[in-house]
Amino acid sequence: MSLITSKTVPGNVAVSRHQGDEVVFNEVVPRKHPGRWIGVALLVILVSQFVHSAIVNPNFHWDVFAEYLFAPQVISGVGWTLFLTVAAMILAIVCAIILVLMRDSDNPIFQWLAWLWIWFFRGTPLYTQLLFWGLVAVLFPRISLSIPFGPEIIGVPTQWVITAGVAALLGLGLNESAYLAEIFRAGFKAIDRGQTEAAQAIGMSRAQIWWRILMPQAMRTIIPPTGNETIGMLKGTSLVLAVPFTLDLMFATNAIANRLYLPVPLLMVAAFWYLVVTSILMIGQFYLERHFGKGQDYVETRHV
Amino acid sequence: MSDAAVPTVSLEGIHKVFGEVHALRGVDLTIGKGEVCVAIGPSGSGKSTLLRCINQIEKISAGRVRINGELQGYDERNGRLHEISPRRIARQRRKTGMVFQRFNLFPHKTALENVTEGPTQVKRIPKAVALKRGRELLDRVGLVDLADRYPNQLSGGQQQRVAIARALAMDPEVMLFDEPTSALDPELVGEVLDVIKDLARSGMTMMLVTHEIGFAREVGDHLVLMDHGVIIEEGAPKEMLERPKNPRTQAFLSKVL
Fold first, then answer.
1. Which of B67, B101, B103, B104 is the mutation pick for testing A, counting most A CBs within 10 A?
2. pLDDT tens for residues A184-204?
3. DSSP class of residue A16?
4. Is A37 helix (H, G, I), strand (E, B) or coil?
5. What are the residues facing A298 on neighbouring strands?
6. Which residues of A touch B150 (CB under 8 A)?
7. B109–A217: do the CB atoms touch at under 8 Å?
8. What's the rounded Cα separation, in Å, for the pair B197 and A195?
9. pLDDT tier for residue A156 given thresholds of 50, 70 and 90
10. One digit per residue, pLDDT tens: chain B, 257 residues?
11. Number of Cβ pairs < 8 A linking chain A and chain B
């Protein structure tokens, strides 16, 4: 039996058997996993059967699918859906940051307003909110600045400002802001109190502490659920027909399907594009996570 | 400002109440320029709280904290205390450097970025100057080779030395150490104590909360023993450790020595 020692390399620990100076690493025969191979075989059979049946099944109307996959209304629907998703998420993120700051402030009015906002937008259905935004022009025909209970100073018809697009954006964005505010709050709460104390101790201001110390660390925990919300929003945009906003992907494919009396191939078209956009968003999420994980999740171990 | 009559830190009748807990019950203490004050005592005796009151991480419930004679956290006019703005509090905090038990390095910044964060963001020193100074400080704590590592890639002792360099980068009037070696593996304690010893020798004014009694005897000019939120005995470390007067000091020392 030769000498057994452990050798420490900075950053990782290697235990090896020494014979003189040469290290002979253990050769390990990997465990066999026969069950996995059987599982793979079964899955291959099942998946290929399903794919085959879907391809040969005339009910899927693959010719119609191919015909409308790149149809101009569909492509424009993809564009509008993507635009609504991104614009509503940006609006939601901005509102959520303000809400988190309000809830964290020592001003009780701000705390209370933020709480009320979250209570209302989380507590009522998105569909109802979208309907309401669609009806704003009916409920409030003019938006105006006036002396309280007195004459109007300046005003415009509401329908000039709250168009269907704006209504859809407000409905989606404001609703989402309430959910995001809670996600952001959780992200900030997860940071050790010592981080704020250390930043205070070197004399940083409140704003600097938020922006330079807490925010980058909170992003780590905020991004995965926010990615979830973004993908949820992508599909949530199909609800804007409540406004009614009629240019998004789901409305476009439904309109074609109703005209052709063929719902299935056009549902497949919509599903295809939702998957494509989701995949693109997931790639973006990967890079964001890598950026904000630096120093913690993605650390290149370097030996000095 | 370095009037010999004005102590660097002066604490007058400090009380701190956390809800039901009366953590500090009237503490008076002065630390002169270049003096090393070491606070010891059982856990829960209020020594860390006292330290945190000096740089206003904790708000005091009664008393006055002065640094170089300047009242901290309030303006006193006609015998009444007025709250001051967060900006002025941040400005006052720059006079104290703090080293925490759990290091509290910023995990998303490298060792060097941790050290230069204060100078560039708070003091608005040009980046090139701050980087040069940051490297000098890391060199002083023996870590200039690890400047580009993230805290996660450093040992506890190394992290604490970076934290000391980070505090020094703000050129504080007084350094506060809150049990700087309590979270370290035993073999890493020495490297951190060596850095603190070196600082003491260079004439830095310091207050240190520690459980390292031997170290307190070696570097301390002034030893303070706290229990139940009050100072029960203070004096020159050697004298006090060898001939404690208060029976509670004797009881505490018999447990830790």
1. B104
2. 999 999 999 999 999 999 999
3. E
4. helix
5. A294
6. 294-296, 299
7. no
8. 26
9. confident
10. 445 579 999 999 999 999 999 999 999 999 999 999 999 999 889 999 999 999 999 999 999 999 999 999 999 999 899 999 999 999 999 999 999 999 999 999 999 999 999 999 999 999 999 999 999 999 999 999 999 999 999 999 999 999 999 999 999 999 999 999 999 999 999 999 999 999 999 999 999 999 989 999 999 999 999 999 999 999 999 999 999 999 999 999 988 87
11. 91
Write the DSSP string, A125-173: -HHHHHHHHHHHHHH-SEEEEE-TTS-EEEEEEHHHHS-HHHHHHHHHH
Round to whole Å and give the CA distance between B257 and B252. 9
Distance from C-alpha of A101 to C-alpha of A231, rounded to nearest angstrom: 25
**Pairing label, strands B62-67, B9-18:** antiparallel
> What is the DSSP-derived secondary structure letter of residue A30?
P
B67: DSSP letter? E
Decide the pairing of beta strands A4-9 and A12-19. antiparallel
Closest in B93, B107, B108 to A203, CB measured: B93
CB of A121 within 8 Å of any CB in chain B?
Answer: no
Cis omega (within 30 of 0) on the bond before A244? yes
Closest to A93 measured CA to CA, from A277, A209, A222, A235: A222
Q: How far apart are CA A228 and CA A282, in angstroms?
A: 9
* Chain A environment of B121 (Cβ under 8 Å): 204, 208, 212
- Classify strands B174-178 and B205-209 as parallel, antiparallel or unpaired: parallel
Rg (CA), chain B: 18
A residues 190..209 contacting B (CB < 8 A): 192, 194-195, 197-206, 208
The total of other beta-carbon atoms located within 10 Å of residue A260's CB is 14
**Higher-scoring residue by pLDDT: A221, A21:** A221
Looking up tokens 């900006």 gives: B87
Q: Answer yes or no: are the C-beta atoms of A159 and A143 closer than 8 Å.
A: no
What are B178's strand-pairing partners? B209
CA dist., res. A86 & res. A149, Å (int):
39
What values do phi and psi take at A157, rounded to 5?
A: -60, 135
Predicted ipTM of the assembly: 0.92
Instruction: Give contacts of A213 with chain B, Cβ < 8 Å.
Output: 106
Determine the straight-line distance between the first and last CA of chain A, rounded to whole angstroms: 34
pLDDT at A302 over 50: no
The reply to whether residue A200 touches residue B93, judged by beta carbons under 8 angstroms, is yes
Round to whole Å and give the CA distance between A247 and A240.
9
Cβ-Cβ contacts under 8 Å, A205 against chain B: 86-87, 90, 122
Does the beta-carbon distance from B122 to A208 stay under 8 Å?
yes
- pLDDT-derived band of residue A6, with 50, 70 and 90 as boundaries? very low
Residues B97, A238: Cα–Cα separation, whole Å: 55
Residue A212 to residue B105, Cβ atoms within 8 A: no
How far, CA to CA in Å, does B137 sit from each of A68, B130, B168?
A: 66, 10, 8
